[in-house]
Design brief:
Length: 93
Amino acid sequence: MASRLSDLLAKKAELEQQIIEIQREERASAIAQVKALMAQRDKEIEAVLTPEQLTKVAALKKEAASKAAAGKKPAAKKTEAAAEKPVKSAGGN
């Protein structure tokens, strides 16, 4: 019985390793597919932008890349309406 148990445990460990490897491969494939879709989306968007918009997009991408390199996320900008919106107090005023 101990021999059978050890055989099953060894097979379990082997199957777990196979699962891990398949998950790695699937993850890598999914990441590559998402990157390809994002590149295609960017190409389609850039095809309809004006030169001024393209310039602005390039500047924003450069800013985002420099912030990412510094370990910071780009801050979301508040719209003027959101900035002027009054904040209600917890007391319900």
